[in-house]
Specification:
Helices cover 28% and strands 28% of the residues. The chain contains eight helices and 16 strands. The longest helix has 14 residues, at 44-57. The structure holds 4'-deoxy-4'-aminopyridoxal-5'-phosphate (PMP). 4'-deoxy-4'-aminopyridoxal-5'-phosphate is lined by residues 33, 156, 182, 185-187, 205-206, 208-211, 244-247.
Length: 288
């Protein structure tokens, strides 16, 4: 695999950034996770728009145009001979002095890793995931806004550790008010009495691309849809639940906090939306 760093390609073992890069020292930077389906980069312009919003939020001036970054992403996929894959697009603040100030950094690094991915085994797509609500709360908007896809994922990592140490693959994070925010790296949907419900991003989640696609698909399929705050009670008593994310795609959640959700098996609306997503995803992209 060849890794793209600022316009050049490096072998995996030679792809390096400085230990003085504030991305490494402080988690000061941003990223995107993007899918390549059948040589189409899924929703690439939307991912780049989100990257620029993250950059604006952390006052990181990107010295590349949106088009330059999109061209680099496509080039990295071609260079690695990919037809399907996962692209990790990273922008770190760059090399700087010791100390938090980002203003000593002048050379942001644009890194593109384009590789294969299989986040979960097929068995979990067929039978569903089990999750637990963890004590770690989702970052508050007043601290590090969850809409920033930053290089500091410790909030999500602490939650993931707590779940895994308890023997679960996934965790549910609540916000400071006790409402459902999201999972460690995925948005959450429930189905109750044939209505699809998902918390608004103001409850503390990233504005997921997969989430947005599911909202659009639900509308097309005539599935009733509501964005409203939900509680653990709503998940425990839902008929169906599933998670969405670029890496995971759509995956059923069949148990939360030792309570079976619905029948304890992936539900019908989940299956319909999954099939619809798998059908449209390879068609909605930028050709490499
Ligand atoms: N929430 C978080 C915290 C994430 O990191 C991600 C991306 N893995 C998502 C939600 C899902 O967003 P997307 O569908 O854009 O991948």
């Amino acid at each position: 695999m060849k890794v793209y760093i600022n316009g050049k390609y490096y072998d995996e073992n030679d792809a390096k950034v400085s230990v003085f890069d504030h991305g490494f020292m402080y988690g000061d930077g941003i990223f995107e996770g993007i899918r390549l389906y059948d040589k189409n980069v899924f929703k690439l312009p939307k991912h780049i728009d989100r990257l620029f919003r993250s950059a604006r939020a952390i006052m990181l001036d990107l010295p590349w145009s949106k088009q330059e970054i999109m061209d680099a992403v496509c080039d990295a996929c071609r260079t690695n001979g990919l037809t399907n894959g996962y692209i990790r697009l990273i922008v770190s603040r760059g090399k700087g002095k010791l100390g938090l100030s980002p203003f000593s950094c002048s050379d942001p690094q644009l890194i593109i890793i384009a590789d294969q991915i299989q986040l979960y085994p097929q068995e979990l797509y067929d039978n569903g995931l089990k999750a637990v609500t963890v004590p770690t709360r989702r970052n508050s908007h007043a601290a590090l806004p969850p809409m920033v896809k930053s290089l500091n994922y410790l909030n999500n990592i602490l939650a993931k550790i707590e779940a895994q140490k308890l023997g679960y693959q996934e965790c549910l994070l609540l916000n400071n008010e006790g409402y459902v925010a999201e999972c460690s790296g995925d948005n959450v949907f429930i189905v109750f009495e044939n209505t699809l419900i998902t918390p608004p991003v103001s409850c503390g989640s990233l504005g997921g691309m997969t989430r947005q696609t599911v909202l659009e698909l639900a509308e097309k399929l005539g599935i009733k849809l509501v964005e409203k705050p939900i509680t653990r009670f709503d998940v425990w008593t839902a008929d169906e639940c599933f998670l969405t994310g670029t890496a995971a795609k759509l995956i059923p959640l069949v148990e939360l906090d030792a309570r079976k959700i619905g029948t304890g098996k992936p539900g019908e609306i989940t299956k319909r939306l999954t099939a619809a997503f798998n059908e449209v995803a390879p068609l909605e992209g930028v050709k490499i």
